[in-house]
Amino acid sequence: MKIRIGFVSNSSSSSFVMFTTKEVYDKMLEGFTPFEKDVAEFLSKSTDDFMGKEMIVFSTFSDPGGNSDWDEFTSENHEGDEDEFHEDVYDAWEKIKKEVKDSGVCLSKSTDW
Known about the structure:
Helix 2 packs across helix 3. This protein has a four-stranded antiparallel beta sheet. It is of the alpha+beta class. The protein is globular, with a radius of gyration of 16 Å. The longest helix is centred in the last third of the chain and has 21 residues. The N terminus is likely disordered. The chain has one domain. A hairpin with an 8-residue loop joins strand 2 and strand 3.
């Protein structure tokens, strides 16, 4: 059960934002498969420098209507059927989050609305 103070609606959406340095990002990609790299590159953008470091931001969202960032994602580096594709995307995203968090250079925020 969700308890909110202020505006409340019966719809939900969720999003995730995570920042790390370009140095951590590049090192992370070295150990990734081509498909995992495609997922990382799809979700990441370079941002302005922060305290002299080039930063990378990862973000994703989904809403109650079933819309999501993932709707636009494709990869030529995946072999398998559609069910395996969705499972492998999820696994790659989980690996990205773990690698960045384990690097010790991570700021993240997950929200459910």
